[in-house]
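Model the whole thing, not chain by chain.
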Amino acid sequence: MCQHSRPEGDPAGQASGDASGDASQKASGAPVWRRPPRGAQGEGQGPAAFVAALAALEQAPGRRVGRLELVAAALAAMPALGVARDREAYHRLLRLLPRGVWVPRGPFQRLLAPFPRQQECGLQILEQMEQYGVIPDAETRFLLLGVFGPHSRPVRKCQRMLYWLPRLRHVDPHPLPPSLPPSGLATAHLGLRRIANDPDAHITVYQRPVPDEGDDEGSIQPYIVGAQSPDQQELLARHGPARPVFVEGPFPLWLRSTRLSYYVLRGDPLPPHLREDPPDPERSLYYPLHLDLDLERGPWDDDDFDVEEVEEGPVFALCIAGAGDRHTLGKWIAGLQEANPVLGCTPVVFRLGDGEPTTAGAPGGHPEPRLEAAPPRPVVLGPPDPPRRHGHSTSGDTRSGGGPGAPPAAPGE
Amino acid sequence: MSELGQRESNSFAVGMFLGRLNTEQVFPYPSALSEEQEQTLQELVGPVTRFFEEVNNPARNDELERMEDATMQGLKELGAFGLQVPPEMGGLGLSNTQYARLVDIVGQHDLGVGITLGAHQSIGFKGLLLYGTPAQKKKYLPRLATGETVAAFCLTEPGSGSDAASIRTRAQPSPCGTFYTLDGSKIWISNGGLAEIFTVFAKTPLRDEGTGETKEKITAFIVERSFGGVTHGAPEKKMGIRASNTAEVHFEGVRVPAENVLGVPGGGFKVAMNILNNGRFGMAAAMAGTMRGILAKAVEHATNRTQFGDKIHNFGAIQEKLARMALLQYVTESMAYMISANMDQGATDFQIEAAISKIFGSEAAWTVTDECIQVMGGMGFMQESGVERVLRDLRVFRIFEGTNDILRLFVALNGFQVGGLGSALKSPLGNVGVLAGEVTRRLRRKAGLGSGLSLQDHVHPDLQESTLQCLELFAETADALLLKHGKNIVDEQFVLKRVADSAIDIYAMVVVLSRASRSLAMEQPTAQHERLLCDTWCQEAHQRVFATLRPLPTESFRNLRGIARAVVESGGVVGPTPLGF
């Protein structure tokens, strides 16, 4: 549609005004629907504004031309006005379209794909409804029938939506609340619930944010929320202190339009010769309890590398933190240690940011020089961390992990 | 590929799982008797048969719940207690085929005596024959062979039937290492009250040299009653085989010299498995003999009984029964002699076939005897006809030496294991350019082109068709199951049972084809009759295989599981009578 390039909801934008050359146009030169609504100017948002804008149009005298552009613009404006999830708003839009004019008469006219742009317009309305998860109802269908006739594409689409969307409404096992809280502890909880699918998983807040609400940019104490299930605890206990575990991150997690970053405590998979023994071959006197099946290689074998077939090691715990630096994550590990004492003797390797592995050195270890195109950040050596209990060590290096919005660590952190 | 490497197996059953036709062991019908052996056998058959007809009184044995002394003495004189012991040790040194023929006779007349003899030599001192050191053999075999001492096989415990890990009998090695102290008890030991020599399986602590940890492993011992501390309980009251003595055996502080370990310390599991596997072939021969006797009784009754103005053998209902009995007997007999001949010819891979023959034989014998009672009507039910005793005796054959259900799992799982495929076929039409042997076969089968197998060279032209189809379907199903379940097929017992049933049916088909072909080729007088039996059997088996395997009723399995769960939860039948109470 021709309205793609127009900015959203721009009441003062200069429109090409292709079809609104009627005398009722105000001297501002903008078409009717692009003028600011006649309500309170400050109240630019909300269904009321939308209604007011449409009402203004209804009352505008003259031929109803440029209706398709109108609908397109209105659709584009809806998210900004906050009515994108309001079915009534879509009904009002539909009521603007003429009834009966665009209904093809007879099978031959239907055969010729009548009123393509008009039907596209109807489809656009329905697509936007689908995008925002608005389920049409009988009234929507009735309106569409009146406008486009019974065998038209918008009506068929509406029928499909009426069939599928109610079924898919509850398909999300972890639905998000209609309006997300601002990025913080609450969204971290939601995010962890989504990833840590196990209903047994315990979500623990290891550190509350200070200040309590609001954005954690520059906060002194970022929040740390972690999730671990009893199965993971068992796996970690069995992983043993001899082999290292890795803290990896940040990985992005999108909750609607909020981006969170989560970190993962992972181990490497066991080499084949160390894996769990099959059941004792001398257990059953009469039949084998375990089959040793050979893999055969033949020309039908698929030698391509498939990323789904990569064997990953076990994931022991998850965490979402306000800041993604080693210090904060170190606090997370310290918190995990309460439930997993084996972490005290297991070497923890932090692989943050761009995946550069850096072993946790002794407290106060010197930072490695880093070549960057940009002027290098001053590497500030903080005083060494006090030695952690149980031999657990985090590097006192102040290089940030690169989480979004993570502030460069202040000295002494 | 593994099956072309070290574990290449000639066994027909293993080949079945791979979709191959391993004809070495089955075609032509093997005959492993030299002239001399045949002569010896013929000389033995007469006296043994006469003995069982004249001296042995099965009804009396059953009533007394033990063998009469005259019978015992007579058997010892015949040498029946050491049939397979080498002649230099005092036995008859019979081959497996000769042994099967004699067991056939025993089975025909008295199964209780058969069990006494079988528990003595087929499992009781088999360990000595298979694993004994020359010193042990010299010490024990002569007296065992003449029957002076009787042997028993002691494996089962109250808590341990098939599960070796739950064996509680322990043999503690002495600090000096010269003897073990045995403590524990075994139940349901045949010949437990009579035996002097016991093959006992007990757990011994074993120090693993590599890791230094001590594990408890099973060790096999030869225990003499004279070591002291061996007691037995009263004879158990059984449903059948009452002539055979079954008792609990208790070992309290028995001192077993270290020289009496059979095999190596800690190697008892293998000893147990091999003894059990080796003893199974004789059972099918015994069952074949039993069925021969029972069929004779049924025919005798059917030909003499007149109802509605006609002998009842002219009525279709009876004819069907008699025919089915004949079929089952023919198949069992063919299996029994084929397997024993295979063993004599030196085959190493016959365990699956032996298990198949045990399953088939025991169930066939039960069916045949049941039908015989049916044919005989009320007479069959009365004790004086003797058939009900045989039915009672036969019931235990489906239970001991590995219950038939467990052996079905063995057949299926061993087949998958030894003929294992792995997750071979991911994309069936992959690279059709490279074709060689195995690949050709599998790809062709997957593409529905038929496996190119042919029985042409082996089977008389009249007899081939249905077997090949069954083989194909079986291999296809085995493939599909492995692809679907992989190693977890071990847990799918509903499915494994059906696979085993089909394997049994197919092996039975091939066995009768082989025997009937040979008869036709040698133009034996019974050739046409055998051909009739063979055709009928193959038709019915073919239908059964197709009905079982296509499709596998997984929904029915789920339902059965659910019903079982409900029944277990309510401790029995779930609801009251239709009356509501």
